[in-house]
Amino acid sequence: PQPTYLHDYQPPAHRVTHTELTFDLSPGATRVKARLHLERHPDREDAAESPLVLDGEQLSLKGIAIDGQPLDADEYRVSDTQLTVHRVPERFLLDTEVEIAPEANTALEGLYQSNGMYCTQCEAEGFRRITFYPDRPDVMATFSTTVVGDAQREPVLLSNGNLVERGELPNGRHFVTWEDPHPKPCYLFALVAGNLQKVEDSFTTMSGREVALQIWVEEENLDKTDHAMASLKRAMAWDEQTYGREYDLDLFMIVAVNDFNMGAMENKGLNIFNSAAVLTHPQTATDAAFQRVEGIVAHEYFHNWSGNRVTCRDWFQLSLKEGFTVFRDQCFSADTNSAPVKRIEDVAFFRTAQFAEDAGPTAHPIRPDHYIEITNFYTLTIYEKGAEVVRMLRNLVGWEAFRQGSDRYFERFDGQAVTIEDFVDCMAEASGLDLSQFMRWYSQAGTPEIDAHGEYDYAKAEYHLTLRQRTPATPGQPDKLPLHIPVRLGLVGTKSGEDLRMTLDGEELGRDAVIHLREEEQHFVFTDIAEAPVPSLLRGFSAPVKLRFPYAREDLAFLLTHDSDGFNRWDAGQRLALLALDDLIAAHRNGVEKVMDVRVIEAFRGLLNAETDDKAVLAEMLTLPSEAYIAEQQPVVDVDAIHAARTFVKQSLAVALRDDFLRVYHDNASDAAYAPEPEQIAARSLKNVALSYLMSVEDEEGIELAQRQFSAGHNMTDVRCALTLLTHSSRGDLADPALRLFGEKWAHDPLVMDQWFSIQVTRPQADVLDRLTYLMEHPAFSLKNPNRVRALIGAFAGQNRVNFHRIDGAGYRLLADVVIELNRLNPEIAARIITPLTRWQRFDEQRQALMKAELERIRAEELSPNVFEVVEKALA
Ligand code: HT7
Ligand code: ZN
Fold first, then answer.
1. Closest CA to 267 of 253, 279, 257
2. Contact, 272 vs 257, CB < 8 A?
3. Fewest CB atoms within 10 Å of the CB: 83, 136, 641, 712?
4. Where is the Aminopeptidase N-like N-terminal domain (predicted)?
């Protein structure tokens, strides 16, 4: 497969102004008739001489005509990927008819079947598997879609826009016609047909229009839509209040499907969701799932403006819609729940997973300059780092200018397909700031590292801060230029414990300020600093960088209690724990007795005994850095030492602070009716963190509490936590009965069974691989269902580090076997699930060799472009 390059971009020679589609549904032979209203593109001088070239894959062409005249065989050509009509008039109608087989579509791109229901996934390039079309986001057309189906099997026939006609047909068939008045690229096209039921509500927009809201699900899930509906209404109101954006159709629909490659899809007026991203019930979904659903519902809704009304010129601009929309959904969730916890959770995930991506063989800029398979670029870099860059822009220009820039962007480019420059230009114009250096964030891959040094000059009452930035080389980018990095900071007085007033170059900055790092090295001299401070740097994670500062453990313990920035208080605790973990990892490697750092115990004792009104933050602060994050800090990852050191810290804390953890558990237990609300969620997470400490030493009282919590079955958050702790204990007599009960009770519910699978394969015990092999034979396991694959294989390879990296290579072998099979069935999922194997550079030589051998074994197969691209990069 050949790469596509950003620098080759050209507008299309022909554009579609209106698209008429008719689907005659049948599992093995669906007929798709398309009538495209085409014309030459005014921006292409060579359009008159250009043939018409349409994308199309796995289509069987049954008929083709221009302006009603069927074409002769020598007037066009069909290849595996394109239809070319050699000569076409300036403006014309093209009719085609193709046949496709949704039931055979296991890749879940284009039109496919899930539980007998028809649905589509067209982003990024799935529409070309439905009909011949210029499948690129800069071709925007209005759509009129007629769907014909069996009245019994498919009573519900949905597509984008407004329903304009419906009727009966002979042979038990019926049809519905939909019209979408908003020009859209074909990646936003959607069709759903099946036996679905709806839950309805409505929303009155700020201009007083009534919008009907519908969530379509299979009958047994009708009781699981309340939270998604409430989230949708909150998101609609938030987008009006925060961005002045109103919904633009009379109907907004969400459909839940079981087989879906990602979380959800923002098709115009007809969002299609992975059932895991929309269905919730207190008995089946955890607090985390409730929050995830709220965030994804909002994300897809926000795309209606950031993505649909204003879309991307080409797929290199993907972060234009995704980075901005993730930023918008993060802010929405922060406003709706606990803002500091949302930031801590997002950053903890980002620093583990995106940093690893940025340091690995598939590292790429937020705007890549080439790709082989675009679906490989729906990455943490495009989404999460893209959102961090938008957040930096918001912080650099301030909220007011940011909002003005956003208004300008939506107004100027409404109905257009645009670039990242167009977005940043609006921000520059609204703020008057020069953002030219800032643009490097979009083209340079890799995580910038900042080395910071500080010194207090008692005699001059000055604090001297030196910041030095460097971005490491990444594949294809050996040399990097300095970035424009906003560093938010405070200087916390060691005597007063308060943020000191800062003056820089004669300018009063206040007690919390942003300084701009633009050079490779910069010195900042803060004057009139009356007492020695500890610097609190990169507050709120003001830039997606690694910041090193030689903090003494006492400084970190000080920041842990005194920093006014909640995020940095948490981060100080993480840094303190990491220092202790470092020593213990070294001790484990050297076979020396492990000794727990009492400063960590005392810091945790302080946290457990301090008055707090933010239990959610406290729960985060009591959570040790994950094994994955600890690994990120190590030059060569020693999975066993990391696991042993982290377990030792956890157990030492559990022993030393047993009574505190027991008290916290009891103080936060409650019988109140479940609600996914911040206060309850905070208490549950604090209680469950305390329980996890007690269970880490298999404390008798802890075991009893976990068993009681499991049996009480109050809500899935508590049940799942208890089941996980029982299953991950070393005692089979605790794990097996609970797993059996849970498995039997929930055998009918796929989303709960996904949890049952995951919990078992994330056990740290060494027998887990046998269990995994056994579970892969379970009748409920299928490689065709992406959620199941993620629950079993993804959870094992991604979260069970000690067992996946077993020194006999059995974990690697198992993953490679799965990738080889999935490469045939669902290349998109195969190319994602392989990720842990691509990170071989981070491990010792023996593991490196084993991992590379598995990658070579995969490379020897006949590969999809998706897996080919990833494996080639991993072995380069
Ligand atoms: N914009 C959507 C992307 C998406 C997707 C991409 C590739 C393959 C399958 C997919 N399903 C959804 C999701 C979003 O970011 O909102
Ligand atoms: Zn998105």
1. 253
2. yes
3. 712
4. 47-188
Q: Is 300 a catalytic site residue?
A: yes
Q: Which residues of the chain have pLDDT under 70?
A: none
Catalytic residue among 300, 373, 620, 627: 300
Helix (H) or strand (E) run with residue 232 in it: helix 226-243
When the pLDDT of each residue in the chain is averaged and rounded to a whole number, the result is 98
Q: What pLDDT, on the 0 to 100 scale, is given for residue 862?
A: 98
Q: Residue length, the chain? A: 876
Q: What is the pLDDT of residues 290-319, one digit of tens each?
A: 999 999 999 999 999 999 999 999 999 999
Cβ neighbors of 666 (< 8 A, separation 6 or more) are: none
Q: Is the dihedral of CA 673, 679, 681, 683 positive or negative?
A: negative
pLDDT score for 804: 98
> How far apart are alpha carbons 247 and 34 in whole angstroms?
29
Ligand 2 center to residue 324 CA distance, Å?
A: 9
Say yes or no: ipTM exceeds 0.90: yes
The residue nearest atom 7 of ligand 1, judged by CA position, is 375
First to last CA, the chain: 16
Q: How far apart are CA 644 and CA 581, in angstroms?
A: 10
Cβ–Cβ under 8 Å, residues 82 and 128: no
d(CA 40, CA 47): 6
240 burial (CB, 10 Å; 0-12 / 13-18 / 19+) is middle
Number of H helices, E strands in the chain: 31, 33
| R_g of the chain, CA atoms, integer Å | 28
| CA separation for the pair 182, 213 (Å, rounded) | 18
Ligand 1 nearest-atom number relative to CA 299: 16
pLDDT one-digit tens code per residue, 159-197: 999 999 999 999 999 999 999 999 999 999 999 999 999
Q: Angle at which helices 865-875 and 845-859 pack, to 10 degrees?
A: 150
Look at residue 612 in the predicted model and tell me its pLDDT: 86
What are the CA-CA distances from residue 275 to residues 250, 296, 301, 832 (Å)?
24, 11, 16, 20
Residue 56 near residue 98 (C-beta atoms within 8 A): yes
Q: Would you state the structure tokens that stand for residue 287, as one six-digit string?
A: 């607090």
